[in-house]
Amino acid sequence: MKPSHRAPAIALLPAGMITFVCFYLFIAWTFAISLTGSQLLPRWDFVGLLQYERLFASARWWTAMGNMALYGTLFITGCLTVGYLLAILIDRGVRAEGVYRTIFMLPLSMSFVVTGIIWQWMLNPGLGIQQAVRGLGWEEFAFNWLVRADRSIYTVALAGIWQQSGLCMALFLAGLRGVDPNIWKAAKVDGIPTWRVYAAIITPMLRPVFFTAAILLFSLVVKSFDLVVALTGGGPGFSSDLPARFVMEHILNRQELGLGAAGACMMLATIAAVVGPYLYAEIRQKKGG
């Protein structure tokens, strides 16, 4: 190693060791626990893949996985769409830009617990939007998604989009501000409509930003716990349950440490299965370019 490279390597060594211990070793420990019959406390009586068999036989687990797929699709698509549209509107030179950016970024400063409580009040049929609209005279108006088993997961997606759209807006706005102004001058000379410039030129240029935002949002989807607990509690029944809540409940409340560890390993496998191909494609494209 060159002397000029030793100082950065030495400076990064403590952080690298902490990451290795707190991340990779704990992943290995969790996988090992998932192969045991651990309940309240860890115990090293290896039972093979029994916990995974129990996990895959659980209807609640598959409900949680289905909810994660639906929630993730709505959440990621909604955040990317709303964030990109807000970034475009601000990039067009709106007045009081700083005020709008502050307003749109404000929900991001709140925790998911606070967001869940706010939306729980807003969507409560007896206190929130439904009651307010009925108070204006529309007695037949109904917006009771929070207490409907077939709609509760959509309320979680709405709350998540409201909070995280500001993050996407900031990422897209930074990308839009990095676009060469000559592109807009050339498009104006050629008479190309603004919407077509965004659709055919600007959006493909922001592909890395879309990729980064999608990865960040997907990580939030997989580990979503506090939002669903604060907003719906996983209910009605288990209709809005998510894998992270399934894992935490079985570890903390049901004393099923081995089963919870198996669920955590499957969550990690889900991340690897979704993110891995995208990372491989990006790396291969960079090498090819």
TrEMBL record:
Full protein name: Sugar ABC transporter permease
Domain of life (superkingdom): Bacteria
Family indicated by similarity: Belongs to the binding-protein-dependent transport system permease family.
Pfam families: BPD_transp_1
Compartments where located: Cell membrane
Keywords, alphabetical: Cell membrane, Membrane, Transmembrane, Transmembrane helix, Transport
A GO-annotated cellular component: plasma membrane
Record carries keyword Transmembrane: yes
